[in-house]
Specification:
alpha+beta; Cytochrome p450; 6-stranded mixed sheet; 3-stranded antiparallel sheet; 11 strands; about 10% strand; oxidoreductase; iron ion binding; heme binding
């Protein structure tokens, strides 16, 4: 039987608002073939219940070695040797290797530990607002805040020293976006990869020479003691530096866009800051920055939600589509700050549930509370339709967020 034509998951209209497409797909069934701009086809799961089952399905593995030739032809975009050296992190591992590697990061991101750092995160957020230019009518909140705060927090949590943190280039995060071998941008893409690898080598060398009581030092020690390979160490540092901060940057932007579209909700948060923890959960549900999961594969042909899926084809879950499933969340397109939250899937589910979820929640609470309190009358400075949504395959967010507010940023009370 011929395979159905895939739904295209790309283009400005889709990235600006994928939810009408997801609604049609959910109504037609839980799983569909989709096409990405790199030419990769995949099976996309959309409903909440189906998504939970898929994310916990032991038949589905994450290791790229499970991918078949059709997938590998288009998906292995990162050239060798970088692919082998940077792609063996937690997101691409299965038990027991995944279990062993995950243990290294769970302590650093434990809820109690990151909660103790909340006052330090608040100092960082306030300092960024203090530094915002006061001589202009508009401020780009990505450049001034959203692209900086999560990285500062991450550096504090994992033990990246200030002199190395200052040299990190945000554009290195673009190496996760597919750029095919024939793409005119391929040379620039490979230059970014080499630059990032050189930076990772410096990070490793520093923590080997000057070990401390921090996550990066523990990872380097695990490599030196033979518990991790060199490729696994570099991959985990890569994952921390890129996946550890870029999704939070994007989530700050999706949350702010949602709030500026609903001024009454934004003003209510300013008036009732005690709502912030629940508001963060609702904003995560409404428009998750991690739109799609990474690849999963079946080792053998098998039935998945009533559809025969060939071995080695990629299976992906739409976290955004699952989080707006009306069977799980009544009136799902509404931002309801009083919603009795159930288990949204913004951080995934199962053994690959995001280990940094507790940290991300605190970052979002601090960031949004600070911005709503200190930027009165916060509003978009450009028409909503002019916002440029990032063309990332898996993520959602805007690359710039020009905003205005009612009066110049006031310094904090030094009381």
């Amino acid at each position: 039987m011929p395979l159905p034509d895939p739904f295209p998951l790309y283009g400005p209209a889709y990235k600006r608002d994928p939810y009408p497409l997801y609604e049609r797909m959910r109504a037609a069934g839980p799983i569909h073939r989709v096409l990405f701009p790199s030419g990769v086809t995949a099976w996309l799961v959309t409903g909440h219940a189906a998504a939970q089952r898929t994310l916990a399905d032991p038949r589905l593995g994450k290791n790229h070695a499970l991918g078949n030739d059709r997938w590998r032809e288009h998906a292995s975009i990162m050239p060798e040797p970088q692919h082998s050296e940077l792609q063996v992190h937690l997101l691409h591992q299965d038990p027991p290797k995944h279990t062993a590697m995950r243990r290294y990061v769970t302590d650093a991101f434990a809820p109690r530990r990151v909660e103790e750092l909340r006052p330090r995160f608040q100092e960082m957020a306030d300092a960024l607002v203090d530094a915002m230019p006061a001589d202009t009518d508009t401020v780009d909140l990505v450049r001034c805040f959203a692209a900086r705060f999560p990285f500062q927090v991450l550096a504090e949590v994992i033990g990246l020293p200030p002199h190395l943190a200052a040299r990190f280039r945000r554009e290195w995060g673009k190496v996760v976006a597919p750029v095919g071998p024939q793409d005119p941008g391929r040379p620039a893409y490979e230059a970014l990869l080499r630059g990032l690898q050189g930076y990772i080598a410096e990070v490793v060398a520093h923590h080997r020479a000057e070990p401390g009581d921090d996550l990066l030092s523990r990872l380097v020690a695990a490599r030196d003691e033979g518990e991790l390979t060199g490729e696994e160490l570099d991959s985990m540092v890569f994952q921390l530096l890129v996946a550890g901060q870029e999704p939070v940057t994007n989530q700050i932007t999706t949350a702010l866009v949602a709030l500026t579209r609903r001024p009454e909700a934004l003003e209510r948060l300013r008036a009732e800051p005690e709502l912030m923890p629940n508001a963060v959960e609702e904003l995560l549900r409404l428009d998750s920055a991690f739109e799609l999961t990474t690849w999963r594969f079946l080792a053998e042909d098998a039935d998945l939600h009533g559809t025969r899926v060939p071995a080695g084809d990629s299976v992906i879950v739409s976290l955004c589509a699952a989080n707006r499933d009306p069977e799980r969340f009544p009136d799902p397109d509404t931002l309801d700050l009083d919603r009795a939250q159930g288990p949204h899937l913004a951080f995934g589910h199962g053994i690959h549930f995001c280990p940094g979820a507790a940290l991300a929640r605190i970052e979002l609470q601090v960031a949004l509370a600070t911005l709503t309190a200190r930027l009165p009358g916060l509003r978009l400075a450009v028409p909503d339709e002019d916002l440029a949504w990032i063309p990332a395959v898996l993520g959602r967010g805007v690359g710039e967020l020009p905003v205005a507010f009612d009066r110049p940023v006031c310094p904090r009370s030094r009381g």
